[in-house]
């Protein structure tokens, strides 16, 4: 798996050193190297980034404040010449805290920590026959398929609606649809996936799922009708 990296440091020599390190590791891909947090903010809104190498002492917005400002930050490894910010950095769930000048050996140890987390995550998120796991805030939440009424996508987030709760996770409908069995779940609209076992009736261009009336997209209606007819057979 390739880890897409962003370097943020106002010191040209520090950036060049990290760039050379990234280029020596096959699993890393350097997306961009930035001298300010503002420049990095633009990159994060335009590119998919898995890992940031983030300096703390920078003019304008420092690294800690920048990380706090991000709603869904990528993983971060802090790089700094000062030790006193280490506690706060780890409270922000930093992967590692590298003191300058960063040696290649120490850099590799930090990357190994990233790789360990990447290897652990898919195991936790693997679907079972009857369960969906989603990330909500800092928790991994277990949802029985039978408890799910429908899923609604909005931007980079998805609402998973059950009879008693609404869960919000940072993901897309496309990603979550891959974790759900097509025998029970079907997309009825670009923004909705429903649990067929919870469907009460279809009327016009709407379906009733429990007390929720949900629209059917024109491009999805034929597949939905076909699925319902197959269930009747």
Write up this protein:
By secondary structure, the protein is α/β, with parallel strands linked by helices. The chain has two domains: 119 residues, Response regulator (Rossmann fold); 102 residues, LytTr DNA-binding domain (OB fold (Dihydrolipoamide Acetyltransferase, E2P)), CATH 2.40.50. Helices cover 33% and strands 33% of the residues. Strands 2-1-3-4-5 form a five-stranded parallel β-sheet. Strands 10-9-8-12-11 form a five-stranded antiparallel β-sheet. A three-stranded antiparallel β-sheet has the order 13-14-15, with no helix packed on it.
Largest sheet: 5 strands, parallel
| Morphology call | elongated
And the CATH topology of the largest domain? Answer: Rossmann fold
Number of helices: 7
The top level CATH class name of the largest domain: Alpha Beta
Elements, N to C (H/E)? EHEHEHEHEHEEEEEHEEEEEH
Poorly predicted runs of 5 or more residues: 119-128
Mean pLDDT: 87
The separation of the N and C termini measures: 44 Å
The structure class reads: alpha/beta
Number of domains: 2
Could you say what the CATH architecture of the largest domain is? 3-Layer(aba) Sandwich
Question: Widest sheet: strand order?
Answer: 2-1-3-4-5
How is the topology of this model organized?
Layout: E1 3-8, H1 12-23, E2 28-34, H2 37-46, E3 51-55, H3 63-69, E4 75-80, H4 86-91, E5 96-99, H5 104-125, E6 131-136, E7 139-144, E8 150-154, E9 157-161, E10 166-170, H6 173-177, E11 185-189, E12 192-195, E13 199-203, E14 206-209, E15 212-215, H7 218-232
Parallel strand pairs: 1-2, 1-3, 3-4, 4-5
Antiparallel strand pairs: 6-7, 8-9, 8-12, 9-10, 11-12, 13-14, 14-15
């Amino acid at each position: 798996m390739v880890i897409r990296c962003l370097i943020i440091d106002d010191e040209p020599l520090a950036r060049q050193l990290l760039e050379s390190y990234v280029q020596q590791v096959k699993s890393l891909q350097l997306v961009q190297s930035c001298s300010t947090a503002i420049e990095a903010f633009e990159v994060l809104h335009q590119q998919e980034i898995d890992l940031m190498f983030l300096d703390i002492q920078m003019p304008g917005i420092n690294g800690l404040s920048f990380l706090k400002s991000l709603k869904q930050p990528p993983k971060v490894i802090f790089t700094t010449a000062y030790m006193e910010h280490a506690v706060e950095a780890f409270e922000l769930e930093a992967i590692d805290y590298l003191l300058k000048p960063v040696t290649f050996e120490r850099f590799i140890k930090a990357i190994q920590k990233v790789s360990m987390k990447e290897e652990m995550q898919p195991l936790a998120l693997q679907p079972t026959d009857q369960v969906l796991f989603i990330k909500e805030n800092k928790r991994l939440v277990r949802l029985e398929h039978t408890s799910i009424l429908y899923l609604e996508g909005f931007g980079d987030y998805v609402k998973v609606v059950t009879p008693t709760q609404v869960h919000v996770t940072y993901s897309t409908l496309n990603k979550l649809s891959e974790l759900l069995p097509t025998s029970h779940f079907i997309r009825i609209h670009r923004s909705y996936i429903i649990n067929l076992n919870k469907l009460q009736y279809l009327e016009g261009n709407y379906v009733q799922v429990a007390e929720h009336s949900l629209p059917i997209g024109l491009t999805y209606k034929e597949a939905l009708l076909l699925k319902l007819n197959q269930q009747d057979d």
